[in-house]
Amino acid sequence: MTSALRVLPLGGLGEIGKNMTVLEYEDRIVLVDAGLRFPTPEMMGIDLVLPDFAYLRGRVSDIEAIVITHGHEDHLGCLPFLLRELGVHDAPPVYGGALTMAMARSKLDEHKLSKDVEVIDVKDGEMIEAGPFDVELIHMTHSIPDASAVALTTDLGTVLVTGDYKFDQTPVDGRPADVTRLAELGREGLLLLCGDSTNADRPGMAPSETIAGPNLLDVFSRCKGRIVVTSFASNIHRVQQVVDAAAALDRKVCLVGRSMKKNTNIGRSLGHIKVPEGMLIGPRDVAKFPDEKVVVISTGSQGEPLSALRRMAYKDHPQVELHAGDTVVFSATPIPGNERAVNETIDRLYHIGCDVITTKDAPIHASGHGYREEIKLMLNLTKPRYVMPFHGDFKRIHLHGKLAESVGVAPENIFKGENGLPLQIDAKGARFAKKEQSGMIFVDGVDIGDVTDVALRDRRMLSADGIFVVVATISENDGSSVGEPEVMFRGVPFVDEADKVRDQLRASVERTLDRAAKDEIREIDLLQQMLHDDLAAFVYDKLKRRPMVLPVVVEV
Q: pLDDT for 61-86, tens place per residue?
């Protein structure tokens, strides 16, 4: 009897980001992508969000390979965390295109894991044997070189995970997507298509990446002062287009932001970026050149809190200070969910006196994800039996499903899934199986793990309503109060009457302690709970707010 094939998304469904998919056959596993996403504003203090890969913890020896479709953070960024948590000495080999693997090595080197993990460059069309899977990378066009779809073949059939793609007929590097191989898969009979849904809500076809270069040059030519361009650090083609526009206008180029410098260096080493000799200058040298002779390429197009552009906007960057007359060019669109942070950054730039140009003002960006007609083209080329929309929120997954119906896929063969819900395919057909554990793992500072809901709730409470700390000293003999209670508060909105409120709080503490002594309550935990409840009620009555109350009871 033929084994069942399981496709288990651990990230990337119902969201845009942290893509990770487990493909399982005959108890062997191939993992496609290991991405992360950046935190939303309510995730206070969280630095990165990873997929919950608990499903893999007990299956490390079953993993035959990890295949990365391309070098963007939402497909590659989780890799070092995943390998460290699973145990690098038992780690499976990691496969991908040359640029993708160069970025992977760089990330692993940052985490001091590069010596322990086998990272292998794979050419398009080259076959990888991974247990019962034959794995093939198929060249696709995206906003980064070496983007690939992954075809995984078992004796049950072939699954195609498209990764991120669009059908750009005039790509910057002159290498359009391999539609011939996609059509061959369709003729051979594709079992399942797991396709990118990012732009399922946008009609037509995405504009070519090559439109950005001439439009950037046109924008630059009208700028009198310094130009700051922000884009995704991994958008290597865009960096090349900015360099070309700067060279045409005899401007120097400065790279700002660690990831921008790192990825540009990797791109140059592999021949994807060519910079004229003597053109690059360091951040400290920007002020030495006339404003009309400088272009800065910076990270921060998504308004990330610690990014270079965000720090410049808030006059907090140690090396580059913006001033009136500078022009800031956003050669990227906000990822859904990042609009607020981007708008805040833009507003701060206007406050400084900068001119700001976004994609609403000029066609200086082209999406790396195909629009509706390209999704239909993928479906028509590959002619899948089953379709499972990937890489999108639930709205886009739903729209992708409708597009599949429109080109003739039977509705019962379209599976609109979610993270943790495995699709199981066998000789009898396809169906969803029992849900597995999925969700989010937070990276908080240097720690990785489950930052509990309680911790995030506490941070939200502190940010909204402040904190009270009360220290009371009692006698170990009779529980009576010894000395005046100490009261401290931060972030509480009654500065004008702080002394009066402090006295009232002390009186409230004394009343609670007297009541406890009379009732012969001596347990410290119980006393602290009584103080918490009484003080919280007092503060709510006074402020109609619920700050965090931390009572501390000390016996002497």
A: 999 999 999 999 999 999 999 998 88
Of the candidates 105, 97, 204, the one whose C-alpha atom is nearest the C-alpha of residue 141 is: 97
Residues 160-198 as b or e (16 or more Cβ within 10 Å = b): bbbbbbbbbeebbeeeebbbebbeebbeeebbbbbbbbb
Contacts with 384 (C-beta within 8 Å, 6 or more apart), sequence order: 160, 186, 190, 191, 192, 193, 409
Catalytic residue among 75, 272, 369, 400: 369
| Residue 449 scores a pLDDT above 60 | no
Name all domains of the chain by residue range, CATH numbers in brackets. Answer: 5-204+367-449 (3.60.15.10), 209-357 (3.40.50.10710), 453-555 (3.10.20.580)
The pTM (predicted TM-score) of the whole model is: 0.81
Buried b (16+ CB within 10 A) or exposed e, 484-519: ebebebeebeeeeeeeebbeebbebbeebbeebbee
369 given a catalytic annotation? yes
Catalytic residue (choose from 74, 146, 196, 326) = 196
Query: Which of 245, 199, 197 lies closest to 223, judged by CA?
Result: 245
Q: Is 196 a catalytic residue?
A: yes
pLDDT at 454 over 50: no
User: What backbone torsions phi and psi does residue 405 show, to the nearest 5 degrees?
Assistant: -60, -40
470 dihedral zone (left: phi>0; alpha: psi -120 to 50; beta): beta
**CA atoms of 420 and 427, how far apart (whole Å):** 23
Place of tokens 């497909």: 75
Q: H/E element holding 260?
A: helix 258-269
